[in-house]
Each structure stands twice: as C-alpha cells, then as structure tokens.
Design goal:
The structure holds three protein chains of three kinds.
Chain A (H helix, E strand, L loop, with lengths): L12 E7 L2 E6 L3 E6 L13 E7 L2 E7 H4 L12 E7 L2 E7 L1 E7 L5 E2 L13 E7 L2 E6 L1 H6 L12
Parallel strand pairs in A: 2-11, 5-7
Antiparallel strand pairs in A: 1-2, 1-8, 3-6, 4-5, 6-7, 9-10, 10-11
Chain B lengths: L5 H24 L7 H20 L6 H15 L7 H23 L5 H15 L9 H14 L6 E7 L4 H12 L2 E7 L5 E7 L3 H8 L9 E6 L11 E3 H6 L1 E3 L12 H16 L3 E3 L17 H7 L14 H7 L6 H26 L7 H24 L1 E3 L1 H4 L2 H12 L3 E6 L4 E3 H22 L3 H6 L6 E10 L2 E8 L6 H10 L10 H6 L21 H11 L3 E7 L3 E9 L4 E9 L2 E6 L3 E5 L6 E4 L3 E6 L2 E7 H4 L13 E7 L2 E7 L1 E11 L11 E6 L5 E5 L1 H7 L1 H10 L1
Parallel strand pairs in B: 9-11, 16-25, 20-22
Antiparallel strand pairs in B: 1-3, 1-4, 2-3, 4-5, 6-7, 8-10, 11-12, 12-14, 13-14, 15-16, 15-23, 17-21, 18-19, 19-20, 21-22, 23-24, 24-25
Chain C lengths: L3 E5 L3 H13 L3 E5 L2 H10 L4 E5 L7 H9 L9 E5 L4 H10 L3 E4 L4 H12 L1
Parallel strand pairs in C: 1-2, 1-3, 3-4, 4-5
The chains are: A mainly beta, B alpha+beta, C alpha/beta.
C-alpha cells in the first residue's frame, strides 16, 4: 500500500546506489556521508555480513555488507568500493554497496507501490518503486531495515 | 535609527526559560512555614525580569500572567500576603502556562488560550482574596513588619490636588469619587480654582485616572506631603501628572522642593518643566547643564538615613554569595557541536601522537635523544589536554536530578501518595552524552517507584511505616564507573508474583532461583506484574527498554529488594572514554587489547607444561598451578599463526580471584588506549568490553577479561579435582 | 573622546539590547550582570555614565548606587536608574542614594539614546 503521507517535501530526495544489478534508493536524510572501504576490524563471532567496525573520526561504527546479507552480486573490495554511512536514529552504521549514483528527487506521482515479491528485500522494508526516466529504483525504508531483528545490529533483550 | 528587536529574542527566550526553571525549582523547595526571604525575592525577580523583557521586546502575551504573578509575589515577599500551598500550585501552573507561551514563540507549538485565561483568572482571584489565609500569620506579620521597618514606606499621605476652574457639578462629582479613596478636604481658592487635600494610601496614578475623566492631565497638579514625619525637613516630591506618561525624570535637589507658602504656584512652575520631561519617560533629579553633569550628591542627612538603610536582602543578609549569580559572569555559552568537535579533534591528536610514538620507537634513542624527549613531552601534554577537554563534557548529575522534584510532586499528588524526594550526590559528574541518555530510564524507574513501590498513606500506616514514603536518587563514582541508584522504602518486589508471571509467560524459572535472578525477570519484554496497568508507568514495556538503553551505554542494572522494606535499582555506567593501560596481543592478523590491570604475567610455556584434559580442552602449568588454557583464536574464530602454546605466548589473566592462561600468537606492546564504546552504534559483543583506536587509525577490540574467566570457570574446577 | 557607559542589568536580553543600541550610537559600553559585578567593574574604570536596573541578585540597584557614591571617583559621575515604575517611593529612594535620574522600563532604544545624549553628549 502506498503511504502517500510519507512523501512530504523532504521525503522526496533519495540517494541512489547499486547492489548487484538493481538500483536502490534511500531517504537522503538518513545518509551522513559516503566513504571508501578501508581498514575494517573484524568483530569476533559476528555474522558474515557484518564485516566489522571502523574508526570514523573517533567513533566506532559497524560496517555491514548488504551484498552478503541479501546475496546480491559479488562482494568485492577494491578502491572503488563504497560505504554509505547512515545515521539511523542516532546510531551510526555503514553499509557496503557496489556503487553510489546520485541524489534524485521523486515526486509522489513517480512512486508506485512496491511489489510483494521479486525483490531481494522483504516488502515490509520497501517504501515503493521509483521511476525516473528509464531508471527504476527500489526504495528502501533503511531505518526499518537496519533496526530490524533480522539484521541483528541492534541488541534486543533476551528474557 | 531603528533597531530590530528580533535579534534579542533568542537571548530573551533562553533567559526566560532559565528563569522559569529557576522559579519552579525555588517554588518546589520552599518551606511554607518559614519561606526564605532570599528565595522569595529570587522568585519575584524572575517574574519581574520576564515581565520586563516581554514588555521591552514586545512579546506582550507574556505580560498578562507575569504582571499578576509579579504583583502577588511582591505582596508575599513584603509579608503582606501569606504564601500557601494554593499559591505555590497557582505559581507552578503559571510557570507551565508561561512555558507553553514561550514555546509558542520559540517553537511555534500551539498555545491553548483557555489555559492562559484560566491561569490568569486563578492568579487574579488569589490577588484579590481578602486576607492571607492558611499558614502561620505570625511569620508573615513579622516579615511585613521587617519590610516596612526597613523601607520607608509612605503610609498615609496627604495629596495636594490643584484643579483649574471647573463647573461646580463636575467638581462635586470629582470630590465624591476622591472622597472614596480617603479623607478629603476641599478648599476653593480666591482665583477660582480648587484645592483638594486628600489623605489617602492610594497611588497618585489612581487619582490621576479618576481626575482625567473630567480634566486634561496638564490641568491638574498633585503634590505630595508626608503626614507622619518625625525628622526635620520635608522630603517632598513635586509630581506633575504629565510626568507619569513621559517615563523618565530627573530629581531636583531637595531644597528646591520645600513647600512654599503658595504651593500651587510652585507646583505649577515645576510642573511646566516637568511636563516636558515626563512625556518622555525619564527624569533627572537635577537639571543637567551642558554634558558635564556636576551633580552634588544629595546630603545624606539624618532624616534620610532610614530611607537609605533599606535592607534589600540581596545586599545585606546573605553573605555566602549565590553561586548562580557569579557563575553567569564567569562562564560562556558554547554550543554542544563545538565541544564535540573539540573532543574529536583532541581524539585525533591523541592518535596522531600515538603514530609519532610508533615511528620514533624504532629510532636509536642515543642518536635521537632530544627528539624522543620532545615526543615524551608531547605525549604528556596531549594526555593533559585530553583530560581537560573531556571534563568539559562532564556535567553534574544535578542536571538530571533537577527534573524530578516537580514530576514526583505531581505524580504523587495524582496518585494520592505522600512522597519525600531526596537526592544524594547531585554534584557527581557524568559525560554529557550519557546524561542525556540516562534521563528516560531514570524517569521510568522513578515513576515505577511511586506508582508500584510506595504504598498509599493508609497502607503504609497499617504496615507500621511513616505515612510519607521516601524516594531517593543517588549518584557516586565507584572505580571507573558511576553508580546511580533509585531507592524507595515501599513494599518491595513480590517474588511470588514475579515467579508466577514468569511461569505464565513460559520463562524458564525454578523455585530455587536466588532473589537476584528473580528480580532480573522483570526486564523481560512485556513483563508487568502490576495488577492494573496504569497509564502512568506504561504497559510493562518499560523495564526491558530501560535495560536495553543502559546496556547500550555499556552499563549494568542490578536490583535489590526486600518485601515490606523497599527496592533499590542500581545502574552502573562506565565513565566513557576512560583511558586504559592495555597490552596489545596479536592473533592471526588481528590485534586485541588486554586491560593491563588483569594481566599477571606472560610467558612461553614449555611443551611439557601443556596438558590435554580429554574432551575439555587444555591446561597449562604455571608456577606449580594448572590454569585453564583459553586459546583466543578459538574464542573469536580466528586463524592463528600458532596452534601450540609453546610456539606462541600465554598471558596469565586474573579477575574475580580466578586465573586463566590466554593463548595468543604474539605480544605486540603496551600502551595507553582510549576506550570507545561499541554498543553506541552496534551491540554488545560477547567477550568484548569495548574498542579502541590504534596509532594507525585502525580499531582494536578490548577483551572482556571477567567474562572470559567466568566462562572457563568450570574447566578450572574440574582440573583441580583431577590433578 | 568616546564616552564610556556601564550598563548593569541581570537580564541578559535587556542588557544586550541596551548595549547594542548605545554601541550603535558610538558609545563604548561595558556590561555587568548584577550590582556586585557592576561595582567591581566600576572600581577598575571610571565610566562617563552608569545605567543600572533595580531588582538584581547579590547587590541591587539602590545598593550599587549608594556604594558608587561612596567612592571618591564616582562623586560626579551621572547615574541613572532603570526602573519599572515611576512611583514617588522609587524616586525618593533613588534621590536619597544619589542617583541623578531614572528611565522607565520598558523603553525603546530611541528614548534611551536620547536620554544618554542629554547626559553625556
């Protein structure tokens, strides 16, 4: 169901990036910066997609590789590898993607409801499908995704 | 030149917010039986300041309430009205209303005008209540007397009102009106004008208001004369009605204000000059000639001594200086972003310094002695700088504690409970980042204590307790942590209820569980044993969030409780960015930090000293003692360089009275590291207590030695039995 | 010579408004946050004019004025009270401690500048 209320004026700007063969978009307000992939310290016994932590100007930030988590494309690490640093409700975390394209603005009419199947992500984490010229971007609710128990990035209390 | 007042708005808003908070704090702490004069004055000044500023900057909607508030407070501080609970409640309501209005200006949040009107009316009702009712009128009377004695208040005054020629009917009407204000004598002069002599305590403004129904202000003159003068020489004021509207005035030397034989003429001469000044809103006691005002100070003669000796409590009484006043002039406002940036920059500096140290390590100390000395000096300087900068972010817990008195009072009132609220250790400091995050969990715990912990007065009495419950918040530094406790002397936790509820929810429990473990059950999500879920403390979603939040800060929560006696919730938080002496070790390609405080020694064991306990791992003989061997590579899933302890290094670690032998590949070195929190952005990782940034900018994880030792405890016990 | 003014008021917003308005008219303004602060600053420097609020913590306006007049350096310095009312009571007290005049709050910057000009030029 398309929640048109979500697409207010500031919600319409997305950072477009690629994972595997698809292009995705996330709310620009959640993005703190974009960096290269460097010097990640492995964290013991973490799931495979959690590459480890890095030092971001003095704070410790976890880095996850979405390509590994959602089995998209080949996880390679070279000088072109990009890490998007996100600020999810005060928590800083980074995600490795294949490349970052640009910042695009989508009007509400350019956004359609996300299909229930056919994308790597559960539809619960999608806010819609955006179309711009020839491009189709899968719009992700990055907040919901990164906070989910599935990702396991944020501790939940065991009884 | 016009000046845009809007540039001052932000300062005024900030100031008003602080004044309102100060006002609330004082109101909550005030002792109704013996209110402190200085506090009353401070509360008055707060309202007075807000009103003044609002008027100056044109923020008029604030003036309605502050005006009545100020009037009431003035009466109270002068002892003319007693301060009662009703007053305090009304003042607190006023504070809330003003805050709402302030937020309306600042944040554009909605303002409920009905609430504003209701508040104003409530205050006005109090202002017009006939007599000070309630508490000890003795102290009120005393304060009133003291105030009067210290201030030469004119009591009854004689006003000399000069009127021009007027129709008789109007004069009569005027006389009637004025007669209601005091005792009036009327003299019709030869020149056709009339003089009223009115003995009254009313203010001149009131007289003017009445007269100006029929007259122009300029036609009227009023002179004042003290009736009950004991001293010599009359200190008289020649006031023209126009003076009031001008807004300023200059005093005249006293000797020109003697009552002449025909006061009316003198008055009129002065009035003419005054009229001009008065329309302007300022005045001078003596006319200024040129710019150099050669002002002779008025003789401080005997009769004015009592005027001069007005005991303004601020000046006279209280010698210990109010630190709040002095702190304003010795501190500056700095934005949080700037401080954070400063801290980050210093952090970078520490890392750069570590890099320099690393590079110089490989130099020949003989040849580069002076360089090495300088680097040592630099290291010391930077450590000092870092400590100093970190302390900027440290704030006293009072910042958190001060939010509670009001909340406790309101909540206890709402629930019909009596709660005495005490704080201990408000000066204990905590990093600002943590302070902000501790507020929500503490709020929840305090609400819980009042809601579920402390019983109703009747219940307490039945239980042989004081009808007033005691709730305390305390903070203290213990080791490298800050310990914050919420303690109540209520009914305590019910073990039976908690166990029953846990069973209901399918949690693994047993009757043999020690109390400390039973209490921890309340942190399970959705757990609430409250019979009614009150909207006050939530639907049991609170405690698990509390624990999670505290865990995210790297802290622990403990509970102690005794049925019938009360409950203590104890939160311990690490003082962040602590500096740790660490030993760095390498396993495979990774480097880990061991807190030096837990390191006993390190050695390379002989192959014969390493024994295998079938199915349970290996032990190492160190100084005649067999210690469990914990291979770090197994713990953290790393491919090591060495599989045999005798090829690598074994570090003997100790915690909680137990020892283990940690098997690593190499020792790298020893250094001071800055501890960084892992849970801020990630989650708690088993076996890791934090992270640090190395000289090369990389991250290294710090091993949680206590946890490591706990998990290998069992093996050690069994080994001792079999050896 | 540029005239110097000491502005004493515990309300930061008001003090800033006064200081700003007077500085914009070419005066050198020093601010003090209460009577005590004002007195300390006055001891260090003899100003051409002192403007002081009444209700302040630590040392209020009247006490400040009295203290200033006790200093030999401040016998001839004009002092004006910034007051919220122009009652005879206020005036009596002000004159008694040695103030030269008063200015009623709220005032607008125009009036303030006008009065100050009158006094110091």
């Amino acid at each position: 169901m398309l929640d048109t209320k979500k697409f207010g004026t500031s919600d319409n700007e997305f950072l477009a990036f690629t994972l595997g063969r698809e292009e995705y978009g996330i709310d620009i307000l959640k993005v703190q910066e974009i960096r290269g992939y460097e010097q990640v310290t492995r964290v013991a016994n973490a799931p495979e997609f959690v590459k480890g932590v890095v030092n971001l100007r003095g704070i410790i930030v976890p880095i996850v590789d979405m390509r590994i988590k959602f089995k998209l494309g080949e996880p390679t690490y070279d000088q072109f590898t990009v890490v998007i640093i996100l600020n999810i409700g005060g928590r800083i975390m980074g995600m490795v993607v294949d490349s970052v394209s640009d910042v695009i603005t989508l009007g509400a009419e350019q956004i359609k409801p996300a299909p229930a199947m056919g994308t790597a992500f559960n539809v619960d984490y999608l806010t819609g499908l955006g179309t711009l010229d020839e491009r189709m971007l899968i719009l992700i609710d990055i907040d919901k995704l990164m906070s989910s128990a599935e990702m396991g990035l944020i501790e939940s209390v065991a009884a | 030149m016009t000046i845009d007042m809007r540039q001052f708005f932000q300062v005024f808003f900030d100031e008003t917010e602080e004044l309102l908070a100060e006002m609330e704090k004082l109101l909550l702490a005030i002792d109704l039986r013996a209110p402190d004069d200085e506090d009353l004055n401070a509360i008055f000044r707060a309202a007075h300041s807000i009103k003044g500023g609002a008027g100056t900057f044109g923020i008029t909607d604030l003036t309605d309430i502050t005006h009545v508030l100020e009037t009431l407070l003035d009466l109270i501080r002068k002892g003319e009205m007693a301060l009662t609970t009703e007053h305090v409640d009304a003042f607190l309501e006023a504070k809330d209303t003003l805050k709402m209005q302030l937020d309306g200006h600042r944040l554009h949040t909605p303002v409920d005008e009905q609430i504003v009107a209701a508040c104003r009316l409530r205050l006005q009702a109090l202002a017009h209540s006939p007599a000070p009712h309630g508490v000890d009128t003795g102290t009120t009377a005393l304060r009133a007397a003291r105030h009067r004695a210290s201030v030469a208040q004119p009591g009854l005054r004689r006003l000399h009102i000069g009127l021009p020629a007027m129709p008789a009917a109007e004069l009569d009407a005027l006389a009637l009106e004025l007669a209601m204000l005091g005792s009036l004598t009327r003299t019709d002069t030869a020149t056709g004008t009339t003089v009223f002599l009115l003995d009254t305590i009313s203010k001149i403004e009131e007289i003017v208001n009445i007269c100006t129904f029929l007259l122009e202000p300029g036609d009227l003159t009023i002179a004042e004369q003290e009736i009950d003068r004991s001293g010599s020489g009359a200190a008289q004021d020649m006031v023209s009605t126009a003076e009031m509207t001008q807004g300023f005035g200059f005093f005249e030397p006293m000797n020109t204000l003697q009552m002449a034989a025909s006061p009316l003429l003198a008055a009129q001469e002065l009035a003419a000059e005054k009229a001009r000044e008065m329309a302007q809103g300022y005045g001078f006691f003596e006319p200024f000639t040129a710019f150099v005002a050669a002002v002779a100070p008025p003789p401080v003669s005997a009769e004015t001594v009592d005027v001069v000796a007005d005991a303004k409590p601020a000046a006279g009484r209280r010698e210990p200086e109010r630190s709040t006043a002095s702190s304003e002039s010795t501190s500056i406002r700095v934005s949080v972003e700037k401080v954070d940036q400063l801290i980050n920059l210093v952090g970078e500096l520490v890392i750069t310094q570590a890099m320099i140290e690393q590079r110089t390590d490989s130099l020949d100390p003989m040849r580069h002695e002076r360089l090495m000395n300088s680097v040592s000096q630099l290291t010391r300087n930077i450590r000092d700088l870092q400590e100093a900068v970190m302390s900027i972010r440290m704030m006293p817990m009072d910042y958190v504690f001060s939010r509670f008195p009001r909340m406790v009072r309101d909540l206890a009132g709402k629930l019909g409970k009596k709660v005495e609220f005490v704080t201990v250790g408000a000066a204990t400091e905590l990093d600002k980042g943590l302070i902000e995050r501790i507020i929500d969990p503490l709020t929840h715990l305090v609400r819980n204590s009042i809601d579920h912990g402390i019983e109703l007065p009747a219940q307490r009495i039945a239980a042989g307790k004081n009808d007033t419950g005691r709730l305390s918040l305390s903070a203290s530094h213990q080791g490298g942590n800050i310990v914050i406790e919420v303690n109540d002397d209520g009914g305590g936790l019910s073990r039976e209820r908690i166990l029953a509820k846990a069973l209901e929810r399918g949690l693994p429990v047993s009757d043999a569980m020690p109390d400390t473990e039973v209490w921890q059950l309340i942190f399970a999500p959705g757990f609430s044993t409250a019979e009614e879920v009150t909207d006050i403390s939530g639907r049991g979603v609170g405690m698990d969030v509390v624990k999670r939040n505290i865990g995210a800060m790297g802290g622990l929560v403990e509970i102690r409780s005794a049925a019938g006696f009360g409950t203590t919730i104890s939160i311990s938080l690490p003082l962040t960015l602590a500096i740790l002496d660490g030993m760095s070790v390498r396993v495979g390609e990774e480097i880990y930090i061991l807190p030096l405080g837990h390191v006993v020694e390190s050695l390379q064991p002989a192959p014969a000293d390493v024994k295998d306990i079938s199915g349970q791992g290996r032990v190492v003989k160190v100084r005649g003692q067999y210690l469990p061997l914990v291979p770090l590579h197994e713990l953290f899933g790393i491919t090591p360089r060495y599989l045999q302890p005798s090829d690598g290094i074994v570090v003997i670690l100790e915690a909680d009275g137990r020892k283990v032998a940690l098997f690593v590949d190499d020792l790298v070195g020893q250094q001071q590291v800055v501890v960084k929190n892992l849970e801020s952005n990630y989650r708690k990782v088993a076996g890791i207590s934090g992270a640090t940034i190395l000289g090369d900018g990389g991250v290294s994880l710090i091993v949680d030695v206590s946890a490591l030792i706990r998990s290998s405890q069992r093996l050690a016990d069994e080994t001792l039995l079999s050896s | 010579m540029t005239k110097t003014i000491l502005a004493v008021d515990d309300s930061a917003s008001l003090r800033q408004m006064v200081a700003f308005s007077l500085r914009a008219s070419g005066y050198l303004v020093t601010e003090a946050v209460d009577g005590q602060d004002g007195l300390e600053k006055a001891r260090v420097q003899v100003f051409d004019l002192v403007l002081t609020d009444q209700n302040m913590p630590r040392l209020d306006g009247l006490a400040l004025i009295r203290a200033l007049r006790a200093l030999s350096t401040y016998q001839k310095v004009p002092i004006l009270m910034l007051t919220t009312e122009s009652s005879d009571e206020m005036k009596a007290k002000g004159r008694a401690v040695g103030a030269n005049g008063w200015l009623v709050k709220p005032f607008d910057p125009q009036r303030l500048i006008e009065v100050v000009k009158k006094v110091v030029g």
